[in-house]
Amino acid sequence: MKKKWILTIVWLASFVLCLCLVESFFYFKNGDGIPFLLSDDRVAAWRPVRNLYFPYLSGVLAFWFIRPFPPAKTLQAGKRRFTLAICCTLLFNVIVLFIISQVYWNYQEGTNAIENINDAVTMAAWFSFVVAPVNAFYFGGSSS
After folding, report:
1. Contact of 78 with 72, CB cutoff 8 Å
2. How many angstroms separate the CA atoms of 28 and 17, rounded?
3. How far, in Å, CA of 119 to CA of 116, rounded?
4. Are 84 and 134 in contact (CB under 8 A)?
5. Domain enclosing residue 38, as ranges
6. pLDDT in tens, 49-100
7. 79-83 long-range Cβ contacts below 8 angstroms, 24+ apart
């Protein structure tokens, strides 16, 4: 059960970190003293993040209650499932956060925060074939 909590917290914390990073764009300013995003852009900035994380979070939370896959037959197999799920989840979320945070490193080059958010969602879609099945298999068959 502890491992399921850890993986669930990683997903929830990554979602919250992503939202905080996006929200920071409304308060921090570029080299010209203009905020990265204006408050009118809030919905346009939050929507892709919501669309990215909600399917994963719904699956994680749903699989807390249903188990469509058989549990691991051995303790070692369960450990391998968890290791694979946590590594893929961390890689996925680090990539998303890294791409969104590019605004802070490239702000003098006229980067657009909304474009970075959309690029992160696009990259996440490319990597979803790795993280979604692994997490579904882990959560859907894990009893611990």
Report:
1. yes
2. 16
3. 5
4. yes
5. 2-141
6. 999 999 889 888 887 787 766 666 677 767 888 888 899 899 999 999 999 9
7. 81/137, 81/138, 81/141, 81/142, 82/3, 82/7, 82/138, 82/142
CB proximity list for 9: less than 8 A, separation 6 or greater: none
| pTM, rounded to two decimals | 0.83
Which three-class secondary structure string do you get for the chain? CHHHHHHHHHHHHHHHHHHHHHHHCCCCECCCCCECCCHHHHHHHHHHHHHHHHHHHHHHHHCCCCCCCCCCCCHHHHHHHHHHHHHHHHHHHHHHHHHHHHHHHCHHHCCCHHHHHHHHHHHHHHHHHHHHHHHHHHHHHCCC
Structure tokens at 97: 């956060």
Q: Which residues pair with 29 in a beta bridge?
A: 35
The number of distinct structural domains making up the chain is 1
Cα 26 to chain centroid distance, Å, stands at 20
More confident residue, 98 or 139: 98
Environment class of residue 7 by beta-carbon count within 10 Å: exposed (0-12), middle (13-18) or buried (19+)?
A: buried
